[in-house]
Amino acid sequence: MAKKNKSEMSFLEHLEELRWLLVRSTIAILVASTAVYFVSDYIFDTIIFGPTHPSFYTYRFFCEASHYIGFADSICIEELPFTIQNTSMEGQVNVFVWTCITAGFILAFPFILWELWKFISPALYEHERKNAKLFIFIASFLFFLGVLFGYFVVVPMSVNFVATFSVSDVVKNEFNLDSYIGMIKTSVIASGLYFELPIIIYFLTKLGLVSATFLRTYRKYAIVIVLIIAAIVTPPDVVSQVTVAIPMLLIYEASIFLSAFVAKKERQNEQLS
Known about the structure:
Strand content: under 5%
Distance between the termini: 33 Å
Helix content: over 70%
Low-confidence stretches: none
Radius of gyration: 22 Å
Largest sheet: 2 strands, parallel
Structural class: mainly alpha
Shape: globular
């Protein structure tokens, strides 16, 4: 029997397609997580706990930058006065498993995008379906760029802030392992997904749910939200807040431009048809 065209499939058949998308994506994540297991020592010692050392790349970069712009040692970090401890019997096991799964999700993200593209492609024009490779490349690039931004910018600034903040000299910072790992996972994944905003806006614009006019109208609210986020995750200094806020605002502006471009293309296609 010939395979049905997706445009002719029923709602339940679409749900079945979605179920298999989730199954294949889950398998891909588990395979990637298994690969991460074999390099787990490097993942934890060098990557996860890297931001706990004053010699971490980001701290050295900002220290050198402070000298360059005449701030002397005002941004330099000599020590991070905190320790990380485990307070539950199964804590390290849970952290190990979920860290491998998170890393597996990051590594498998291009495959997940490919599966998602196959699911939504029937709703696109023929010439748009031919751009599958370009879509996967751009979306994956933005996600990995966001992950790097989260790891090298958001995480070290957050660690520096919470490590040096104290309500009293009597209180010593001894962070729970699960809390520390959770902060890193949240910062990295959230940054990666935020950098996918242009891709999300692209599809929302095609569906008629978002427009460039809408994004421009609410730009001032977006700026306030970004500044609040930057103020929360960074130390209370202007340099750190601007460093986090500028890339996020640029992503938002790029989304406005993309929305306008997509809307223009949609109008041209309608005129030609």
